[in-house]
Write a structure and sequence with these properties.
The complex is a heterodimer of chains A (406) and B (387). Chain A has 406 residues and is α/β, with parallel strands linked by helices. Chain A has eight helices and 17 strands. Classes of the chains: A alpha/beta (406), B alpha/beta (387).
Chain lengths: 406, 387
């Protein structure tokens, strides 16, 4: 009965076992979408003391849609009100601009195709947000990612253990959080696994997160499919239940990457050159807007379709070919730098799977470390491996980490 | 089965009156003609518009030619403020710190001065007197404030303006000094007679009057000099070019006619309900702060603040429990900044974000008030606990 006062007036919504109040403060990053809404609801149901946090990241006012984030913030808050949980706004606007937006623009300027979502997770969600939440009194943070965290060693105290004992006394025979019993075991590694919904799995975006951050993080949606999440949202009548999934890079929003970049970089028109003949076959409006393997928008008329197989940023030239089997278009070797491993580094003595872009199929590969770089030998050549993208290594369903394609 | 939500946000939007809808009905299909066309059928549409104009003029004590139909209040205000300021370039416009954004945004484009208000939201007449100089050509003041409902002493302003104009005459200053008022919130409850109010320009909005949205008027007193800011076919005395929104015009005039002809009954009815709601809330929260001028306040407005409360959270909770209300003005709420009106009346910081604007209307019942009071009291308590 000690914990009965921890149940809120929405407890009736959660059929089945009453929550076991663990007195753990979890700050859930709530974006105003259905995933993070359900994350908050699930954790509340599991007995956590949940606080919703909206991270105010950098956005620009677009013509015709002033502060597009205001609706998302309002939705996040509405869900917090529905769940009767506290709600806060963390303002990371300045930091986000520097760490994510400027990084992305820089990378494009250098001719690469970066992944800002990876950067956002590494620097903002599992950097700034985690630190700010812990400083504000959180024990853990949570996000609505479709990925799993395994083998958590909770930063546990004796007090927490006593809570567990007390809780199991009142909730005998009822399921409780398995990982909380990890608290009494010796330390084990905390790993990142693919989400159960392989179609939705977001572990690719999370490979640069540190083990220390994962130890402090919950991702309850990793156990669910998107359909189950939507169902849960509807059961709980969350206002975000029917909200569309967000698409693309959030701060680029509705304008598209090209129009976005045009505001920040001066792109000069240049030549499009056929790789085989060396002849100029057309003009482009800025090499940075073109990406490997791209077919569309080359302004090259007639004949066979052209594909981008190279860029010479110094000369502002885009190199194309009509040869679908071009050696640059299909590579079986990839070199990565900026390596990051969540637990131990992978071994050269065995095979792993690599994913070269979000939702791309897993490819078997062999590793070779060369100084601070990693060379991957792919079992099958892969089309349009793009400099700047992330390559993520998997051992079964466990994310080892990865690096950036050179 | 969920009960129908109680709507207490009439200051934001009003439902269309059935009679207004009926009056508009013929003008979508049968009488769709362009009122400027010359065949007989189109002439009847022209006649309908001019009839509507006469109805509107009647309630303003104006001549029909002084009524310009517009697409809503923002357009009407823009035509008035920008029209005067373009006609007299380099002169100064004066407005109050509690004005709606639709006024402030236009005023900011020109040389302007902003007059402060007293703690109850009433314009500071002493300050106004000192701010008017030889270069001032326009004073724009809302008849009643959209957030806190404070009614401005327009007649006192008019008296002041008369004295200044007399002085200017003696000094040989030929610049005019016009008074514009946005009467959008007042139109359902207060006298709109322009001469009695002493205004030269007056804005009304159908969307707050049980009429259609994007309809309204600008009253332009004969002789008032405005430059047209919208060029085209020269409709509406050349001040609002564009083919007339016939159903909208008919709807607006019908709505205004209904509202003004039953104005005194509406005031009596809604004030009783508002006072009852106020009584219940103050009884539960004696420490809550009532905002606005309690003696000169719109009869349907109740604006109340609780220290340290998250007003936005309260509004969301109320929404979930079946009461639709506002934290201030809808626009300010979306921008995540404290309302400039509440800042202007010097509301203490701990009260700034903890406000609730309840605005009652024609369909509010005594049962609504009783039920809403209970829900609001419980919700404020819950929000206070959450904080």
């Amino acid at each position: 009965m000690v914990f009965s006062n921890q149940r809120n007036d929405k407890a009736y919504l959660f059929a089945g076992n009453p929550p076991v109040a663990l007195m753990k403060q979890v700050y859930v990053g709530m974006s105003g979408g259905v995933d993070s809404s359900v994350t908050a609801a699930l954790l509340q149901q599991q007995g956590y003391q949940v606080t919703g946090v909206y991270m105010k990241n950098w956005t620009q006012d677009l013509p015709g849609m002033k502060c597009p984030w205001a609706d998302d913030l309002a939705d996040a808050k509405r869900v917090a009100v529905q769940l009767s949980i506290p709600f806060k706004v963390f303002d990371f606007e300045k930091e986000y601009k520097q760490l994510v937006v400027d990084y992305m623009i820089e990378q494009y300027q250098a001719g690469r195709t970066p992944n800002p979502d990876v950067m956002c997770n590494q620097e903002v969600k599992f950097g700034l947000f985690l630190r700010a939440a812990l400083a504000d009194g959180a024990d853990l943070v949570a996000t609505g990612h479709y990925a799993r965290i395994e083998g958590r060693r909770l930063a546990s105290t004796n007090e927490h253990f006593r809570n567990l004992e007390a809780a199991s006394g009142t909730a005998r025979g009822r399921p409780t959080l398995a990982h909380d019993f990890e608290a009494v075991r010796p330390k084990m590694k905390t790993s990142l696994l693919m989400g159960k919904d392989l179609n939705k799995d977001q572990s690719y975006f999370l490979y640069r997160v540190t083990e220390a951050a994962l130890e402090k993080t919950l991702m309850p949606l990793g156990e669910l499919t998107k359909m189950e999440v939507r169902q849960k949202a509807q059961e709980l009548q969350l206002v975000t239940a029917k909200k569309k999934d967000s698409q693309g890079i959030c701060f680029v929003g509705k304008v598209g990457i090209k129009e976005f970049l045009q505001q920040y970089v001066t792109a000069a028109p240049g030549d499009i050159v056929d790789k085989k003949t060396g002849r100029v076959v057309g003009r482009h409006d800025g090499a940075i807007f073109y990406t490997f393997g791209q077919r569309h928008g080359l302004n090259v008329g007639g004949g066979l379709p052209y594909y981008v197989v190279g860029k010479d940023m110094a000369r502002n030239v885009v190199i194309v070919t009509t040869d679908l089997n071009d050696e640059n278009l299909w590579l079986d070797t990839v070199v990565l730098n900026q390596l990051h491993w969540i637990n131990e580094a992978p071994s050269e003595d065995r095979q792993y799977h690599v994913r070269l872009r979000y939702r791309a199929p897993l490819i078997i590969c062999q590793l070779k470390f060369v100084e601070d770089k990693l060379r991957l030998k792919l079992e099958d050549p892969e089309r349009a491996i793009t400099p700047g993208q992330s390559a993520v290594l998997y051992d079964g369903e466990r994310v080892m980490g990865g690096g950036i394609v050179i | 089965m969920m009960q129908k939500p109680i709507y207490l946000d009439y200051a934001a939007a009003t439902p269309l009156d059935e009679r207004v809808l009926a009056a508009m009905q013929p003008f979508w299909h049968e009488q769709f003609y362009n009122p400027s066309s010359s065949y007989l059928a189109a002439r009847t549409v022209r006649v309908a518009i001019e009839d509507a104009r006469s109805y509107v003029a009647h309630w303003l004590g104006a001549r029909p030619s002084e009524v310009i139909f517009t697409a809503g209040a923002t357009e009407s205000i823009t035509i008035a403020v920008q029209g005067v300021m373009r006609r007299f370039p380099g002169t100064t416009v004066l407005t109050a710190s509690t004005e709606h954004d639709s006024v402030l945004a236009s005023v900011m484009l020109y040389r302007h001065k902003v007059v402060t208000v007293l703690l109850n939201g009433t314009v500071n007449l002493e300050a106004l007197k000192t701010l008017v100089d030889d270069q001032t050509t326009l004073i724009s003041l809302a008849y009643a404030n959209n957030e806190i409902g404070t009614i401005q002493p327009l007649r006192d302003v008019a008296k002041l303006v008369e004295a200044i104009k007399l002085e200017r005459q003696q000094n040989g200053n030929t610049l005019p000094l016009y008074v514009h008022t946005d009467a959008s919130q007042a139109a359902g409850y207060l006298d709109l007679h322009a001469a009695r109010l002493g205004v030269d320009l007056l804005t009304l909005n159908g969307g707050k009057l049980y009429g259609p949205k994007q309809t309204g008027i600008l009253y332009v007193k004969g002789g008032t000099q405005l430059e047209s800011i919208l060029q085209g076919g020269g409709q509406e005395n050349n001040l609002r070019s564009g083919t007339e929104n016939v159903p909208g015009i008919i709807g607006f005039a019908t709505a205004l006619d209904l509202a003004q002809s039953t104005r005194k009954e509406s005031v009596a009815k809604v004030a009783v309900l508002r006072d009852e709601l106020q009584r219940r809330l103050l009884q539960a929260f004696p420490q809550a702060s009532l905002n606005g001028n309690l003696k000169k306040r719109l009869p349907n407005n109740l604006h109340i603040s609780w220290p340290g409360l998250d007003g936005e959270r309260l509004v969301m909770l109320l929404d979930e429990r079946g009461v639709q209300a506002a934290t201030g003005s809808a626009c300010a709420a979306n921008k995540q900044t404290a309302s400039h009106v509440l800042q202007a009346i010097g509301l203490k910081p701990e009260l700034l974000h903890g406000s609730l604007r309840l605005s009652l209307g024609a369909f509010t019942t005594s049962e609504d008030v009783q039920r809403a009071a209970k829900i609001i009291i419980k919700s404020v308590q819950d929000c206070q606990k959450a904080a």
